[in-house]
Amino acid sequence: MDNLSNYEGSAYEFAFLTALEAEISPIRSVSVEKNGSYYAAQYKWNTLSAEEKKVYERSAVGGVRTLCKAEPLLTEDDGILILKFQEDKKDDDGDVRDLLISRGGTEWEIGLSISRSRLVAKRGLVSKTLDFGKRWFGLPCSLDYWNEIASAFKTLKAAKAANMKWVEIPQMEREDNIYIPFLAAFAKEFQRLYKRHGSLFPQRIIAYMLGRYAFYKVNRIDEDQTTQLVSFNFNGELNQAGKSKPALSVPAVPLPTQIIHLRFKPDSTDTLELYMNSGWQLSFRLNYTSVKVDVNMKIDIEIINMPPEVTVIDGKWE
Fold first, then answer.
1. Residue 44's domain spans which residues?
2. β-strand pairing of 259-264 with 271-276
3. pTM of the model as a whole
């Protein structure tokens, strides 16, 4: 399930919700909110073959039983447990959770990210007029940034006007006139944002990548007959004790508060590496896979290292 399609992902979401309801309803009252996302996932589930459904169900049950060991409040008979798919969201809305689980009458809530196969990677758009600081982090770029990127986008505009392909621009010209000046300006603006906003900025970077809420990422590993739960326990919101303590421990995950270093990747002119405290490391790589030159560019952003507190819990299928 490393490369889940959106279609398969929605069907697996439905399998997980159904497994949650089946496992927990004999213990306590469970209410499923049947919104538009529920019916869309149900439709995709119904297109699967009987054999595919069997695999999805086994995986979901393995994941749910493991989740219950980490979250004892799921199975305590105390009010109604509410299961709800999130309505369709924009990719940069600060919430990567697909399925929300809450307890009626309380503020307790946990979320699961199920459908996304590559949670730690994102693709961002940059252009002559798009304020990436405001769009990604809610922190506007400075006037210096716009002045510093002007030459790179001027080169792009001229190449597009000439209907050029990327391969028609000599490698050295691409590096000297586009990649290096743009990424240098991009890196300088990161430092300015950090100087202006302090620890808030590194935290906003992680919020852009992973959302603003604690959650579990669910990974189905078919070849090992294992369902992984990867915990992103920001602010200690997950793994709360109730009448009993959790059978599985999920450490709180620290958010970064400092930018340690931002540099060009060694022997590269199109990739930056960002190092932050608490073990966070990201890369920013210019994406130019399109054939023809455009006036906009895309950046592939990937988390390449995380704190050891991000825990992977394996749930074996039965």
1. 6-119+212-253+309-316
2. antiparallel
3. 0.89
